[in-house]
Specification:
It is a single chain. This protein is an all-alpha fold. The protein has 2 domains: 222 residues, no CATH class; 231 residues, no CATH class. Helix content is 83%, strand content 1%. The protein contains 19 helices and 2 strands. The protein has a two-stranded antiparallel sheet. The protein is globular. The chain starts with a helix and ends with a strand.
């Protein structure tokens, strides 16, 4: 009995080793963005800062909804690794790479209508629009590299090559910081310089990633699978998985944008308070996402090996760790609100009563941490349809009705309740589905079997 217990939990050192690398890789992104903000914030004209911030939000929206390229690669790759299926592992990288390249080129070709439409909807001052479009129209040239990097990162994560993921993050974000200084400060390219810096750093990261990709495979292996890349059944399965994740990501983006917009309608102080609280949420999300990557990789690997008995222990460790992260960050904000938020701003009119919303923050951090960790679990199983259905249900049942109440009563407390309900409903529904995966065999759980492709374990509904 004791030996069985130890064998079921022998993955723990492996889990936290992967998690540490993932978290380190993740936190480099906001740090690099912070440096860009500092450089732009010290320019003589503030409209460069405002324009880049708004254009950055538009591009973040586009890239976030396309994040399925990473999310749909890791779990399926990990399953192929678990099956010792080198061919399947290679095919998932090549197929999703082609999809990423096509979408990246499409974004470049559509940059002008996308940029104009975005700033028409934002309805900003002409000088802010000019600076924003200068950034948008240069940064978006990096879209093919951004999306291909998503696939490479997902492919490396699925193989537990997290050291390479950290290296790509160091190269990309390190280059971005150096190029920001060169283009923004030294050459004085302002908003355009920020866009060129981002795009260039993404291509540098892609170059390094492709070099390591090529070292992982043999040319003869590529030649052997070229004819299978266009397998219609496998492509349809991959598009189904990616499409389901895409819908789930759209729901998340809708809730985030709606929450931000409704807060802005309640006045500058409320909007600023929510923005500060959101920064705490973002910190937690980056950490939990790194942990979720580890869950995703190991779930896929265990499923590929047929080691289903380790799924329940892994879920227990993952969820417990997520709760600890949420409680720790939320607890510090609860106990020391003046200190925490005083570090973020010196505007006392914003921080003087922000503590009244901290209990909502704590609940959101706990519910969302568990929710995101379970996302990683189901991504590891390649069950995108579960994430799609749960996200839509939480939106319709929890978020939308409560949001109408927040509008009617113009209450920020009710607005925070919308987020709590959204994440709580997702958490509960994913928990129910989680228990079902412990009782069900993979072949009975909506997966299609194809022994010739990586579509062996993909949802097809």
């Amino acid at each position: 009995m004791n030996l069985t217990f130890r064998s079921q939990y022998d993955f723990i050192p492996r889990y936290f080793r992967l998690a540490l690398a993932n978290v380190l890789s993740n936190i480099m992104v906001p740090l690099a963005n912070l440096v860009s903000i500092i450089f732009l914030g010290h320019l003589e004209e503030i409209h460069h800062f405002a324009g880049v911030a708004l254009a950055g939000n538009l591009l973040n929206f586009l890239y976030f909804v396309l994040l399925f390229l990473r999310m749909g690669t890791t779990g399926v790759t990990a399953q192929a690794v678990g099956r010792d299926d080198t061919e399947g592992m290679l095919l998932v990288g090549l197929r999703n790479g082609l999809i990423a390249l096509a979408l990246g080129i499409a974004l470049v070709l559509l940059q002008y209508p996308l940029g104009e439409l975005g700033f028409v909807l934002l309805n900003v001052a002409p000088e802010i629009k000019s600076s924003g479009l200068a950034y948008f129209n240069t940064q978006i040239w990096g879209a093919p590299a951004v999306l291909l990097n998503y696939v490479l990162i997902g492919w490396f994560l699925g193989q537990e090559k997290n050291g390479l993921v950290v290296l790509l993050s160091v190269v990309g974000n390190g280059a971005k910081i150096a190029l920001d200084y060169l283009f923004i400060i030294h050459l004085g390219w302002e908003s355009t310089g920020a866009g060129v810096s981002y795009a260039t750093s993404q291509y540098l990261s892609l170059l390094v990633g492709l070099i390591f990709f090529c070292t992982e495979i043999q040319w003869l292996e590529v030649q052997a699978v070229v004819g299978k890349i266009w397998d219609i059944r496998a492509i349809k399965s991959i598009l189904t998985l990616n499409g389901n994740i895409f819908v789930s990501n759209l729901v998340f983006m809708f809730t985030s944008l709606t929450f931000s917009y409704q807060g802005a309608q309640m006045g500058t102080i409320i909007y600023a308070q929510n923005a500060l609280l959101a920064q705490i949420c973002n910190l937690s999300f980056y950490i939990v996402e790194g942990l979720g990557f580890s869950t995703e990789t190991l779930v896929g690997n265990f499923k590929g090996k047929g080691a289903s008995q380790q799924l329940a222990p892994l879920a227990g460790v993952s969820v417990s760790t997520a709760v600890l992260v949420g409680l720790s960050i939320g607890g510090v904000c609860w106990l020391f609100p003046d200190t925490v938020f005083g570090l973020l701003t010196n505007h006392t009119e914003v921080t003087e009563n922000i503590h009244i919303f901290v209990p909502w923050l704590l609940l959101v951090l706990i519910y969302s941490s568990i929710s995101f960790m379970l996302d990683g679990y189901f991504l590891g199983l390649a069950q995108g349809h579960t994430l799609r259905n749960v996200s839509l249900a939480a939106l319709i049942v929890g978020f939308v009705p409560t949001d109408f109440a927040a509008i009617k009563f113009s209450s920020n407390h009710i607005l925070w309740l919308t987020l709590c309900l959204f994440y709580a409903i997702r958490m509960v529904m994913l928990g129910v589905q989680l228990l079902r995966t412990f009782r069900s065999d993979v072949e009975d759980d909506g997966f299609l079997v194809d022994t010739n492709t990586i579509a062996k374990k993909l949802p097809f509904n």
